[in-house]
Specification:
This protein is mainly alpha-helical. The chain is 56% helix and 2% strand. It has a two-stranded antiparallel ribbon with strand order 1-2. Helix 1 crosses helix 4.
């Protein structure tokens, strides 16, 4: 097991989650950085930058890591798309600094371009925001479809046959909580994770597990549908406040620990 450096605090949770998953795959493969470079075609120095959060790995590198680590490339690539969007947003905030007007000479009568330039910037920014919104909606739809397909597979051939006659997009997924306590910790039978970061737009078994534990802790998130929406976020914030945690609406390792160990209310 590698002794990893702590990731930069300024990383977005989605980027942080992707890098943690890549680190786990490298540990699972038991390959050194040099051997990983030989198998993936990306240099050892590149992998050091990717796995320490200094640079976002390209899509092909993520796909190669999935093959080496034995993970599902489709799910990992969805995580990469979301992380790439957050990474780009973070770089835009960092690089788009205000102009230094103190160093700008006074306008002469012939200088009539600033208004047009600002108008073009405003139009471009609006187009970017629209594109990002559409991309986020498409990614959420992809992850919902993936989660529903996984649920149908887990329920067995009988359930899969019944669902095949109905459009998946029209049938909401409702999970069943099977609460049990092991070694002083509570589990709902959907996931045993204790450190995956979950926030808005996340879907899947990990979200459903957290919803079950939130309901048990007395901060019900609504239906156990595996979708991290506004109700789930408000339930997380109430639970964090009750347990003296940082109230950020994100299910992080301290929040997982509190959910696993919380006494029922």
């Amino acid at each position: 097991m590698s002794r990893w450096k702590e990731l930069p605090a300024e990383l977005h949770p989605h980027v942080h989650q992707l890098i943690v998953r890549l680190r786990r795959l490298k540990d699972h493969s038991e390959l050194s950085t040099r051997r990983l470079a030989a198998k993936t075609g990306y240099s050892a120095k590149s992998w050091q930058r990717y796995l320490n959060g200094r640079s976002l790995p390209p899509r092909e590198a993520v796909e190669a890591m999935a093959r080496v680590g034995g993970d599902d490339p489709a799910r990992l690539l969805v995580m990469h798309e979301i992380a790439a969007q957050r990474w780009a947003e973070g770089r835009a905030v960092t690089t788009d600094t205000p102009e230094d007007f103190s160093a700008t000479p006074e306008h002469t009568p012939t200088e009539k371009q600033p208004y047009g330039r600002h108008l073009r910037v405003a139009v471009t920014a609006g187009a970017v925001v629209t594109a990002l919104s559409v991309s986020a909606a498409l990614l959420l739809a992809v992850r919902l479809t993936e989660a529903r397909a996984q649920l149908a597979h887990d329920r067995g051939d009988a359930v899969a046959t019944a669902l095949a006659t109905v459009s998946e997009s029209m049938v909401p997924v409702i999970y069943t909580c099977r609460l049990e306590q092991r070694d002083g910790r509570w589990y709902a039978g959907l996931s045993r994770t204790t450190d995956i970061l979950l926030s808005n737009t996340h879907v899947g078994l990990e979200v459903a597990e957290a919803q079950c534990l939130l309901h048990r802790a007395g901060t019900a998130p609504g239906e156990i549908d595996g979708v991290f929406g506004p109700k789930t976020r408000r339930a997380v914030e109430r639970m964090q406040k009750q347990n003296g945690l940082i109230v950020n609406g994100v299910i992080d390792p301290p929040t997982w620990q509190a959910l696993r160990e919380a006494a029922p209310r």
